[in-house]
C-alpha cells in the first residue's frame, strides 16, 4: 500500500517540456515557466525531480525545496549546463518554493559523484575487439 504522505513529498517535471531539445526551439522563459508551474502546483513537495536532456543523454536535478539545494546527477560526470541552471534559477525567481524560509532565490548546486569505472583504456578495448573478431571468425568458419 502506498503512503499518501510519502507520495506528496515528491513531484516530477515533464522532461520533454524543459529539455533544451525536447520542444524544438522553446524559449528559456517558456521552459522555466513549466518548472515554476510545477513548483506552484506541488507546494508541499520536499523534492522536485527535473529530468533533463542537454542533447546527448539524460541527467537529473533533484531540487530540495526546503534547503534550496539542487543535486545534479550525471553519469558522465559533467557539470550542469548553463541552460539548465538558467531555467531552474529563472523558475525559482518566478515561484520560489513555499517551504523555503529565507530570501535566497537561487539554489546551491551540488554535483553528485559516481564512483564506478570511468572509461576503458585502449588496451581493454583492443582486447574485447580481438576476442570479438576471433569469435566471429570461428562462427563464420564453422558455418561454411
Automatic annotation (TrEMBL):
A GO term for molecular function: cysteine-type peptidase activity
Any one of the GO BP annotations: proteolysis
Keyword Ribosomal protein carried by entry: no
Record flagged with keyword Zinc: no
Alphabetized UniProt keyword annotations: Hydrolase, Protease
Residues of the signal peptide: none
Similarity annotation: Belongs to the peptidase C48 family.
Protein name: Ubiquitin-like protease family profile domain-containing protein
Taxonomic lineage: Eukaryota, Viridiplantae, Streptophyta, Embryophyta, Tracheophyta
Amino acid at each position: 500500500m502506498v503512503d499518501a504522505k510519502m507520495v506528496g513529498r515528491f513531484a516530477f517535471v515533464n522532461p520533454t517540456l524543459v529539455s533544451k531539445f525536447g520542444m524544438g526551439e522553446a524559449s528559456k522563459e517558456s521552459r522555466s515557466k513549466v518548472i515554476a508551474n510545477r513548483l506552484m502546483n506541488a507546494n508541499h513537495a520536499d523534492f522536485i525531480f527535473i529530468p533533463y536532456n542537454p542533447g546527448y543523454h539524460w541527467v537529473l536535478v533533484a531540487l530540495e525545496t526546503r534547503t534550496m539545494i539542487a543535486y545534479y546527477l550525471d553519469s558522465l560526470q559533467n557539470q550542469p549546463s548553463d541552460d539548465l541552471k538558467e531555467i531552474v534559477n529563472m523558475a525559482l525567481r518566478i515561484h520560489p518554493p513555499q517551504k523555503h524560509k529565507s530570501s535566497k532565490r537561487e539554489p546551491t548546486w551540488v554535483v553528485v559523484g559516481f564512483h564506478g569505472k570511468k572509461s576503458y583504456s585502449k588496451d581493454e578495448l583492443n582486447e574485447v575487439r580481438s576476442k570479438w573478431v576471433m569469435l566471429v571468425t570461428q562462427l563464420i568458419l564453422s558455418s561454411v
